[in-house]
Specification:
Blueprint lengths: L15 H9 L4 E3 L5 H10 L9 E5 L15 E4 L4 E5 L9 H16 L7 H18 L4 H16 L2 H17 L14
Parallel strand pairs: 2-4
Antiparallel strand pairs: 1-2, 3-4
Helix pairs in contact: 2-3, 3-4, 4-5, 4-6, 5-6
The protein binds zinc ion.
């Protein structure tokens, strides 16, 4: 299970009915900076030129959503047509918290708007995972949890179980060591 589904930049009108439904719904909460400032600040510090703090975040209730957005595996997404981040409300004890999802999704926003990191497909996802690792760590995730519960499920979409685990470990070590944001060039020797 991936933490987000990329609501495609290619099919710009995809899911627009579902998204409009979320925006118009009474149960949806609109977040603007400085709410969730820790999440915004983390991404903004790494990519200060991209006005990350201007991005709107809609926190929506799956039970009041339609279509794909009502599905439980959906944690959040960034949509380029609405230029906003959408995050599903969590039940107690959920693995990934709302602010952690916000950080991950804001990196999708960055990936779209930063010319140096305009990535597509799997690389865009690598970018979001790599750059969010230190935030997750600061929230108390152990290296083992990051590997098993955050990275491994993502890598197992593409690779066999064993290979996915090795990739997850390598990915963590490589990106935790970096003291600069991960960029496009860092992915060349990952695949
Ligand atoms: Zn993602």
């Amino acid at each position: 299970m991936d933490i987000c589904q990329r609501i495609s930049r290619l099919k710009k009108t995809s899911y627009s009915d579902e998204i409009k439904h979320v925006i118009d719904n009474e149960s949806t909460v609109l977040i603007c900076y400085p709410e969730y400032n820790e999440a915004y600040d983390y991404v903004d510090k790494m990519f200060p030129k991209l006005n990350v703090k201007d991005i709107k975040i809609y926190i929506y209730d799956r039970d009041h959503s339609i279509g794909i957005l009502s599905k439980k595996q959906f944690y959040g997404f960034y949509n380029v047509s609405f230029d906003s981040v959408f995050v599903a409300k969590r039940e107690e004890g959920s693995l990934i918290s709302i602010d952690e999802t916000i950080v991950h999704e804001l990196f999708h926003y960055v990936s779209f708007h930063d010319n140096d990191n305009n990535l597509s497909g799997i690389y865009e996802e690598y970018f979001a995972y790599a750059n969010s690792l230190k935030y997750f760590k600061s929230k108390g995730w152990s290296d083992d949890d990051l590997i098993r519960k955050y990275l491994f499920p993502f890598f197992s979409i593409k690779f066999s179980k064993k290979l996915a685990m090795n990739k997850a470990k390598y990915f963590l070590i490589k990106h935790m060591k970096k003291d600069t944001p991960t960029n496009k060039n860092d992915f060349l020797n990952i695949l």
